[in-house]
Specification:
By secondary structure, the protein is mainly alpha-helical. The chain contains four helices and no strands. Pfam families: DUF5592.
Length: about 100
């Protein structure tokens, strides 16, 4: 009978370098492909600004907010848009200290 080793923790992200995870790299590659596909639809005077915008957008979306370091910025934006605005959640300041 064969014995298989099952990893105990499979939800961690694969880290490529000290700061870049696999998802971040794939996200940046996706933005590069998106730029390559859409650059022909951009006016020639605005191509440099379009590229700068995509670079800044990509960096902004993959940074991790200090309020929730386990998620990326696009998760925080998504949760801010989708959350129920009419509900109230009390914050206990004694627990955060």
């Amino acid at each position: 009978m064969r014995i298989y080793r099952i990893p105990r923790e499979i939800s961690s992200e694969l880290k490529i370098t000290k700061f870049i995870y696999l998802f971040d790299l794939l996200f940046i590659v996706g933005l590069i492909l998106f730029r390559a596909i859409t650059i022909e639809y951009v006016h020639s005077d605005l191509k440099v600004w379009y590229t700068v915008f995509l670079v800044l957008f990509g960096i902004f979306m993959i940074i991790r907010p200090k309020s929730n370091p386990n998620k990326r910025m696009f998760h925080a934006i998504y949760y801010a848009i989708v959350r129920k605005k009419n509900t109230y959640c009390a914050i206990d300041h004694s627990e955060s200290e």
